[in-house]
Amino acid sequence: MISSIAELISDRIGAMPAGERRAAQTLIANYPLTGLKTVAEFSAAAGVSSPTILRFVARLGFQNYPEFQSALQDELAAQLQSPASRTLNPGSAGGAVSPMLEATLDNMRETFRHLTDKQLADIAARLAERRGKTFLIGGRFTDPLARYMAAHLAIIQPDVYHLAGQESIWRDRLIDMGKRDVLVIFDIRRYQESLVRFAEKAHHRGVQIILFTDQWLSPIARFARHVIAGRTAVPSAWDSSAALFVVAETLIGAVTRQLEAAGAKRIRDLESLR
Amino acid sequence: MISSIAELISDRIGAMPAGERRAAQTLIANYPLTGLKTVAEFSAAAGVSSPTILRFVARLGFQNYPEFQSALQDELAAQLQSPASRTLNPGSAGGAVSPMLEATLDNMRETFRHLTDKQLADIAARLAERRGKTFLIGGRFTDPLARYMAAHLAIIQPDVYHLAGQESIWRDRLIDMGKRDVLVIFDIRRYQESLVRFAEKAHHRGVQIILFTDQWLSPIARFARHVIAGRTAVPSAWDSSAALFVVAETLIGAVTRQLEAAGAKRIRDLESLR
DNA sequence: GGAACGCTGTATCTTATGTTACGTATTTTG
DNA sequence: CAAAATACGTAACATAAGATACAGCGTTCC
């Protein structure tokens, strides 16, 4: 069975004319990058003419060059999204548990790889500056994450509200929301219409939205000031929210640190209470 | 110093108009693949128009779109050649994020290292066999985990209840609990007296208790049939529940798989509903 | 509340990319 | 060795890509 284009090439490279073989070797040499460039660049790199490149991809079974490039991109996408955790502790390997854990660890690394310090610091700063109120809400499976975050934030600062219950209930809370306020939304596939509607209305009221979503981006991203895209794919019937959970915890920690650094009175009061 | 385009983006994303910010977020969400596609595809993915994409890359300092793509390809080439550097975003290394993430990943590895497949399989089996009811409850910060687990389990099987609200409310639910029932409790430091009391009473009624706790073990461990001890230490003012969260997700997956394997009618009915 | 500014999308244009046709060179085969 | 078949490159073509001009709209700031 042939799964990757690289395999396909090495499978057929023997039956290729000289020019096309040069093309193949050039592509393999730094796979798959050469294939993502233009035909002209590819041909120049291989030292052959453009038509030879086209005949080469045709021989591989592709209808045209763009189709070939799409295939390469898909392959690359799959590769980038699951870096195939080689760095895993071998002690836990072997069982049925391991694939799940491995995927989760990969998801977290990937999620944070796309997340810079600055982004997180910006979001944390926005959450820490007490200009207005903070609202949190989530979807069917992610609402617990909103609760978790709210439970922590509500301790270190005032005016933190988790929006619970039925749609009509939190829709009425829109009245309280304005430009100075922040709305944290958790929404992963399958995206909930009620949340999108709510986000849109909040956005029109000038509320700044911080969105936790998956890599396919909830439609709410359209209205969001900040978007955190977490990886959710695991070998399970369900998607995993673990990466988003860790981002949430990281943010909670960052906000706490910022408030401490700012010498917030509330924090000192809290410590004296313990 | 800015070395990667991803960094460049997150550096300037704050100063971007809404449309371009959307483009930026879409690109970051699955970086760098979207940037390698055509302007039309990029714009479609981001839900904005082509000119917005072009203005976006112009703002990043590129003369034209091909130049932008070349830069992405160069970056990708460097990454593909040294996979080690790919593990973490160099931008976030050394920052405040990395220690938190590292600690969390370590916690998970450690947690699962002390957790055998058999333990998890036993617990999953206990949750999957539908002899009685399943109750879930958590403490101040861990109750969201109970909710999260309940939200999933309640779908694949009947008689799953999350115990919410005030102590008096769930204390009264004890009446419904018996030998055939399971109680899942989340309790980490500082352990809540109310939960301990509740666990003790449930235990005396013959309820089987599955406890999620930290490595120092909640006093409830005394009454529990199964104990899952997760690592919680992170460089933050708060403890991390992330490891427990992942165990919960793993269990949810395992229970689902067992029910599927058993050919549970409910699972088939569910699938026909979708 | 009005005016200026800036952002965004539609439509048009231009560029350059992929594609194809054809003639020459090279190899293969009888 | 000759003839056929195949491979390859040059050059012209059509298409689709990126770029630009402009008008409408929302936002902000007097």
Automatic annotation (TrEMBL), chains A, B:
<feature type="domain" description="HTH rpiR-type">
    <location>
        <begin position="3"/>
        <end position="79"/>
    </location>
</feature>
<dbReference type="GO" id="GO:0003700">
    <property type="term" value="F:DNA-binding transcription factor activity"/>
</dbReference>
<dbReference type="InterPro" id="IPR047640">
    <property type="entry name" value="RpiR-like"/>
</dbReference>
<dbReference type="InterPro" id="IPR000281">
    <property type="entry name" value="HTH_RpiR"/>
</dbReference>
<dbReference type="InterPro" id="IPR035472">
    <property type="entry name" value="RpiR-like_SIS"/>
</dbReference>
<dbReference type="GO" id="GO:0003677">
    <property type="term" value="F:DNA binding"/>
</dbReference>
<dbReference type="Pfam" id="PF01380">
    <property type="entry name" value="SIS"/>
</dbReference>
<keyword id="KW-0238">DNA-binding</keyword>
<dbReference type="InterPro" id="IPR009057">
    <property type="entry name" value="Homeodomain-like_sf"/>
</dbReference>
<dbReference type="Pfam" id="PF01418">
    <property type="entry name" value="HTH_6"/>
</dbReference>
<keyword id="KW-0805">Transcription regulation</keyword>
<dbReference type="InterPro" id="IPR046348">
    <property type="entry name" value="SIS_dom_sf"/>
</dbReference>
<keyword id="KW-0804">Transcription</keyword>
<dbReference type="GO" id="GO:1901135">
    <property type="term" value="P:carbohydrate derivative metabolic process"/>
</dbReference>
<dbReference type="InterPro" id="IPR001347">
    <property type="entry name" value="SIS_dom"/>
</dbReference>
<dbReference type="GO" id="GO:0097367">
    <property type="term" value="F:carbohydrate derivative binding"/>
</dbReference>
<protein>
    <recommendedName>
        <fullName>HTH rpiR-type domain-containing protein</fullName>
    </recommendedName>
</protein>
<dbReference type="InterPro" id="IPR036388">
    <property type="entry name" value="WH-like_DNA-bd_sf"/>
</dbReference>
